[in-house]
Write a structure and sequence with these properties.
The protein is an alpha+beta fold and 188 residues long. The protein contains three helices and ten strands, in the order H-E-E-E-E-E-H-E-H-E-E-E-E. Helix content is 19%, strand content 35%. The strands form three sheets. The protein has a four-stranded antiparallel β-sheet with strand order 2-3-4-8, with helices on one face. Strands 1-7-5 form a three-stranded mixed β-sheet, with no helix packed on it. About 20% of the residues have low confidence. A hairpin with a 2-residue loop joins strand 2 and strand 3. It has one domain: Immunoglobulin-like (Sandwich).
Length: 188
């Protein structure tokens, strides 16, 4: 019990240090990013991502609109480990790069834990976001897709899950900010 608690605190401290390092290097990031408390405005422009930055990423480029928010699934990537963590035995990390455009005339809030469900073709849900999966997002210079989006603007970020390696037929189900309006996007 003490060992598990010690490991939890060590992982939390390491994660916090990584997050601080990520914030200090945010100006050097090649992907458009933002902090949780920042309001994203329309003056931010997405830079073109080179093929080097997209190594091992599988381009999806599918869009769905749910309650005046347009979600574009840009790409996804599977990863067995981050700089700090490895996926559990028989599992892998799934990273999904998403752009959200707010088409309304009022600000909107995006919450990656409440608005995205990952399921397979049998309906099994994989909504486990582990510290390792979040660390993989950091390794890829992707901010977690959480925060406020100003009216008529967009935000690019990522969500991450820890899933079994043998999973097939994955669908990302996106719901509106109030839990209404569900729309699935087939990943693979």
């Amino acid at each position: 019990m003490k060992r598990g608690l010690l490991l939890f605190f060590a992982a939390t401290i390491i994660s916090t240090l990584c997050a601080c390092q990520s914030l200090s290097n945010s100006k050097e990031n090649s992907l458009v990013s933002s902090s949780v408390t920042t309001t994203h405005d329309s003056s931010v422009t997405n830079e073109k991502i080179t093929s080097e930055e997209r190594e091992d990423w599988i381009i999806v480029d599918k869009s769905v609109t749910v309650k005046e928010l347009e979600y574009t699934i840009n790409a996804y990537k599977r990863s067995a480990k981050s700089e700090l963590f490895e996926a559990d035995k028989g599992k892998t990390f799934l990273l999904i790069d998403i752009t959200v455009k707010n088409k309304s005339n009022i600000a909107a809030t995006v919450n990656s834990n409440l608005m995205f469900d990952l399921t397979d073709r049998f309906g099994t849900s994989y909504n486990d976001t582990s510290l390792g999966a979040l660390s993989c997002l950091d390794d890829e210079n992707l901010e977690q897709l959480d925060g406020h989006i100003a009216a008529a603007s967009e935000f690019r970020g990522g969500i991450a899950f820890e899933i079994p390696k043998v999973t097939k037929g994955l669908r990302l189900i996106i719901q509106g900010p109030a839990g209404d309006g569900r729309s699935p996007v087939v990943l693979y």
